[in-house]
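Standup, Tuesday
Yesterday: got the pipeline producing structure tokens again.
Today: sanity-check two examples.
Blockers: none.

Example 1:
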Amino acid sequence: MKNILYLLSAVLLAFLIPNQVSAQEIGGIPMDASVKKGVLSNGLTYYIRKNSKPEQKVELRLVVKAGSILETEKQLGLAHFMEHMNFNGSKNFNKNELVDYLQSIGVKFGAHLNAYTSFDETVYILPIPTDNDEKLEKGFQILEDWAFNASLTEEEIDKERGVVLEEYRLGLGAGKRMMKNYLPKLMHNSHYAERLPIGTKEVLENFTYNDLRSFYRDWYRPDLMAVIAVGDVDVAVLEQKIKDHFESYPAAKNPKERVEYTVPNHKETFVAIESDKEAPNSTVQLYYKDLDDKKPVQNLKAYRKGIVNSLFVKMINKRLNELRNAEKPPFVFGYSTHGGTWAKSKAAYQSAAMTSEEGQLKALETLVLENERVFRHGFHEGELERVKDEMLNAMERAFKEQDKTESSRFASEYIRNFLKEEVIPGVTWEYEMLKKLIPTIRIEDCNALISGYIHDDNRVVIFTGPEKEGTVKVKEADVLKVLSEVKNKEVLPYEDKEVAKSLLKEIPKKGSIVSKERDELLDVTNLVLSNGAKVTYKKTDFKNDKIIFSAYSYGGTSLYTDEEVHKTDIANNALTQAGVNGFSITDMSKVLSGKMVSVNPTIGALSEGFHGSSTPKDVELLFQLTHLYFTKLNHDVKAYNSFKAKMTAYLKNVLAEPSTYFSVKLNDFLNANDPRYVGFPDEKVWENTDYDLAYKKYQERFADASDFNFYFVGNIDDAKIEAYVETYLASLPSTYSKEKFKNVAAKPLKGILKKNIKKGKEAKSKVRVIYQGEAKYKSKDAYYLKSLGEVLSIKLIEQLREEEGGVYGVGARGSMSKYPKGSYNFTISFPCGPENVEKLTKKAFLELEKIQKNGISEKDLNKIKETQLLEYKEQQKKNSYWLALLKNADFGKYDRSKALDKVKQIEALTSKDIQKVAKKYLKKNRIIATLNPED
């Protein structure tokens, strides 16, 4: 689901975010003057931009046009292996000194410092603090070493084999087994079908040292590289650093040809129907691969076509989303788009869906039918106008935020410019051009696209799903029959129903602000309203075009009986699917089209509340929606039935996936003492669910505004927000009930316990160690436990990954909760091979015991302090940080101003503080949970 969502959002946003490409003006498309692009004498390309978001930080990237597609048969997986080796010793950093140094200046391995390898490229990501010249110089030294000076010692190569094999192990499972069968059809006769970046187990275990060194020697060369530097440093300084570190390396003599591989066309329709006992869900993928190879945007005509494509995609997906929200939805989720495939040179029109296990053919028919509907009848003017508004508003927002854009965003754009030749005219040019082009785009332009998108040749259909008794497997003939029959069906035009211009039929009778108080220390305004509600707002300049908000009232499901909790738990998630004030969620999306606003009511264990966001322009809508969710939530059984159908289809087979099964069964074990624990929503849970009761309890929870606290942070106009507060919040009904949440928490499990769970046929295990128990909440101990998790993570990476080569990732995390009753929780978790579970678990305990016995070194203490200081410095410039701070302080009943002492708290942290909490909390109650394969 995440991958489908990510692909869809990435395509939809492709023309809403500033895109970037070429150093000169191309076909009327200029290059953004704020970026300096150059090429050194040896062929290395560079991009530089001064940007102060965040302050005193520079984002460095090394981009290499070399990925798995360039590997020989003896090198399968070595492009990715080379990426790993660049963290394991170089000319200026022996063995693990690189990660060690970066941690010492606050840069986390994995969270900040990272890299990735794909088919056509390898990209190294290095954020560096720039509060002194030495750190900046070291940053460029690291990039230089990655590019040209990796050590590649035999000892380190052999040690890293274990780590990469563990990453390979993580990818094993139903998805990979099925992909192995359908990929040759999707990437028919293409090199891409045989070059997955992770490689093969056989090669990773047996490649020679020279196989890796030759890959590095052949492909890590200046003409295939780009260095990107974006941050709070003068352009001239950054350019000189690049020249100092990279210009002295000569261009490659007689360089190996960098072949650009393609995906050949085919006349037939390929059908792949794959199933697996561990497949968690069923999917349908329909590809119409373009007949011509993909070309970069080179002129305004192509740029305009890209905008037309984006409008087309938005319109067809709104139709599919409408079908998804029907009482009997044809799929859990469905989308269509035109965009790239795994191959750099080949794009495709793609329609895909997640379905029930028996609904694949119905989903395919629906997708093909909706494509056919557009082909025969096209879109309506109303549909086009709505998506035009959306696109213009999104670009306007990007335009307004251009001086607040994070450096990492610019760096990503320049990566795409280097690798894919995407244009980089800058957001000002794009906004002005969009305003000119949008009025010229007619409905005929959008309707005409699909005739080039769908065709009988170059077509691939892929079904994936669970293999189980009683499930009738779809046959290739069934798939081809659906494709053929839709062509001969009667297809009616889409009906675009008119909706109201506003969700609110009349403005409520306003209340008043009865008191106003300024907190000068935190630059916050506090209001008390005539109905008893409280409002806190803070005006910031961190974002020009965004306001975020949150709200809470004590109570939540803690005020439900045990029976009510069981009857409403799932249905609570369906309530907002009904819409508000007589408008369905489909109608709401039309009314709100082009508006940047979202409001989401929630009912939690201890409170009910809201979270959402808007632009300053649309902030009144945010208040209106909040008012309507308080007073006019619809009761719609059909909407609930739609939610239930989608969720049951999605959840029906997820327990076949071993990791999900492990998490669910572990939760069952941990909550064995809790009579209110609902657990996995199986058929029994659904049978016991009562939508009417959930709706009734929702009305009860939101019947009294007097005990609600509202928080707003962002680019706020004081006069406007106070006027909206009076109109839409002070007018809410109040009963002055003064509710508090109840302590209904169950006793956590005690003692030294083990839980062994078996699932799956791959040789994959997981270990999760949990320390938990009741304890009086202390803010200092909470901070010390969190810090213990950070330092133990560093030590576990050093020992379990770097020394043992037994894991790819490992981490520890500690926390304390104040409500409903004081408690602590500390976890250590990692995946590994079944044969290493016992050994690595003992190693993890040994590292913890060292801290309990001796504390931590000054060096490790300084590492986590530097990271915390760096993160705090950046957090202070984020609206989300302040929203959470203000809300959590009130919810937890502590002084907000204590947050200003964070630097002092970090600086005062000692080894003894961490040792003390390690000894205090991590001894009595421990659970070791393991997932092992069934065989």
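Example 2:
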Amino acid sequence: MIRDDAFDVAVTGMFARLPGPTDLDEWMAAIGAGEVFTTRRDTDELIAAGVPAARVHDPEYVPVCGYLPDADRFDTALFGMSPRDAELTDPQHRLMLEAAWAALEDAGRDPLDGGLRTGVYASSSSSAYQRRILIGGALPHDMHDRLEVGSGQDYTATRIAYKLGLRGPAMTVQTACSSSLVALHTAVQALLGGECDQALVVAASVGFPQEGHLRVSGGIMSAGGACRPFDAAADGTLAGSGVVAVVLRRLADAVAEGVTPHGVILGTAVNNDGMAKAGYNAPSATGQEAVIRAALRAADVSADSLGYLEAHATGTYVGDPIEWKAMCAALDGVPEGQVRLGAVKANIGHLDAASGLASLVKTLRVLRDGVIPPVAGFTELNPMLTAGPVSVPTEATPWPGPEPRRAGVSSFGIGGTNAHVIVQQAVPAPAGTPQPEQDTVIVLSAAQPEALERTATRLADHLTGADAPLNDIARTLVSGRAPLAYRLAVVGGTAVQVARRLRAPTERMNGIRPVSGPAPLVFLLPGQGSAPAAMGLPWRDRLPGFAELAEECLAELPAGLATDVRRALYDRASHSWRYGRTDIAQPALFVLEYAAAQALRGLGLKPVAVAGHSLGEITSACLAGVLTRTEALRLVVARGDLMQACGKGRMLAVGCGEAEVLKLLDEARPLPGGAALEIAAVNTAESCVVSGPTGAVDAFADYLGDRVFHRALTTLHAFHSALVEPAIPGLNAELAKVTTRPPTVPFLSNATGALIDAGTPVDAAMFAESARRTVRFAQGLAALANRFPDAVAVEIGPGRALSGSASAEGLTGIALAANRDDDAPLTGLAALWTLGHPVDLARLIPAGRPVHLPTYPFHGRVATAPEALARPTGETPAQPASVDMSAPDTPRSLLTKLWTEWLGYPDLADDADFFAVGGDSLVLIRLVRRLNTALDVVIPIREFASARTLGDQIALVESATATTKDTP
């Protein structure tokens, strides 16, 4: 009978921080080698961590636990929490936020993308951190509610939902040791019931401090400091710390997206022992057997299809025999020894509320790899256990069968709530359509520059041995990662090339400051000049929408001209237009610039102004709405024909300013034809273009020699000189047919160098005047820099001359096609993304599917509340930083102290934004209450909330105190 998989659930994402190696593959390899990761902690270390010395020196104390390094660190920047809020949040809850983020990334989902209804099902152990803070008695009473929200179990799931913007159900699930596997069951039911489209199950257990235990005769904690499940020497369990998160999707949905799951959940079950046991804390074989049978029924599989079972396996004198009996009964009829047992607690200790998910992670890796690890430290079967369908492996062995690989996972809680899950190895997603090798954009971001560097290194290391197609990797990074403040991007065609560029800072397009929003964007449109053959190919091949827009333009040209322009754009063998065919070159340039600019708008790039140089002025006017496309095309065609009919001439770029060029021209007047030379364009304060008859320009170049930089431009006409005057009447005649409209965005007048503002009437005659007069582009760039000082100027054309001029004027200049066609314009678009511009990257990369990639490299600051720190016996508890209300304070000093106390920042500038640094409405209310009491003023909450920065709040309080003093 073929099994119906309609109710199967895929594990699409997974993250775990457990005792042992931090890399999950390395961790699993060590598990396969039977390594134990529990730690015997040093006496001085334990005392320094806050364990009372008398306890540590007690002969019954066992200083062993599954220790999790750096559990006290938290990435406050990533989650927008103030240092003080982080300190008042339980380390378990902080780790769960990080784990949730990473698991979603592993699933190929942007953690901040609310596109799917995502439910959150969270579990944690009770907060020893909260108890430690309260016992010290140093926490101000009005901070107790902040501590409760930060450490209470009720708030674990909802905090994750709030910080990540998740809108599905968010609930805390607490059933003691079985909590996280019960949460998994609850999430599966929610998915199958349609309550959410994606489920995030996350659990943590971290003691504070992480320590050993006092052994008690007959208790459940190990007297010898080792957890040895099912072993003859078993004497109890050990505490362990860790955090685990998994992401679930309905299998059909995952398959439709091309995801390769970590594994598939076939069925889950939960029950309770009721009264069928010796006492409330005791386990029940009846209940455990029943839940395993129920999970098998839910999965619609037989017991003999299992090859592995990850047991609850606490290694206790009472628990092991009961669990063994329950497993054997539930698997009745399975051949003896077929089902190998796993017991991860032997490796890492008992993770309490997180133990079920830890077992699941290990089991999913067993199914994926097809290797069954040994039970660590096992030597001899407990004589109370009899032979049956389960067996304890003592060494790593290949999966013995049956196929497909299936396993069970058990988790049983004190109080009797039992959970069991049936899982199966994942079938790899069908291979996608092979993509041709081509350059693509690889983007990375982080909340801090150090994290961005680590992200780049980790991805480069991963790519070195990656077998996933580059398009899958690019797609995952674009759609499966949140765009954060610090960004970098590279462009490459192979994984090896991308890895090399990620490691080389000079190869990256990298923002040097955090982006909070895009700077104003200006489009620069060049005129006729040097351009490569087939200048449209990079745009056609790399810019979505360009080809279609270009064809719309070509359709409006006469058939013969359209053919010539198309060759100029796309035919590498066609060069004739480049060396003087103005009647072809100018329409080709317009088509390229117009199609590219409109395609960029389609990618989300909206300019605040447009600036064209010479012919580019017509393109800019069209983009600004002054001319329709049809009118602009007719004008450009006429302009090209008229200019082509003009006498031949030359143009020379000269590397000095206008005044110096005028002086040089005056000196050169005695040269042959020297009097006919003119300044055609002033591009920057240090660069101009001279235009005139060919012989005169050549003589002037010889006169300059090596004294002044100069370069001949590739043109056979002397634009913006007396040689084009014969074209002006015809151009005016063509302009007489044009009806101009006020621009919708400012655009630059070449003749005056001034910006023509939106809504200003435009005289069509300006375009004929601009064709003859000097192009005042330097003046125009200065006007743009004055109006938009932080603007990014993007050159849309075949070169980079204008973007270089913009950079010289102090703007950020970016050329989208820098006279090469290998990866342009991708590099420029990637650079714009690093600067915060809303480039629709998904349209720039080839089709791909989600793949598992390295996740965010968390490594924040230590975030331990001073009230929780260790203190020598008998010492008065150290008081945290607080405000001395008895001392007179100015509004500035008082507010600074309060910000330090409530937010945890000791040094903030006046422009620091209260909400951006982690403040919220509750903190704001308490600040106002403190201020009103200390300064005897009445500050309305609404006014204070509007004063977002520290400086604004100080000014408001100073005004309130001045008003109070003046009141009789």
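Quick observation on example 2: The longest strand covers residues 263-272. The chain has a mean pLDDT of 90.
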